[in-house]
Known about the structure:
By secondary structure, this protein is mainly alpha-helical. The protein has helices at residues 4-27, 36-42. Helix content is 53%, strand content 0%. The chain starts with a helix and ends in a 17-residue tail after the last helix.
Amino acid sequence: MESLYLLIPLSVLIVFLTIWIFFRASDGGQFDDLVGPGMRILQDDDRGEVVAEGGKTPD
């Protein structure tokens, strides 16, 4: 029973801390663009140059 005197305030503190971290991240713009990074992964823009043997780029 005595452990509840410690665990209940500790759990309430953890809940408020988690809510504070979420709102701080939300105000900082963390969740502004949720679709963009996923779409950038799907785009195929591998435009790297192919280097032939001898270190020269093909013409």
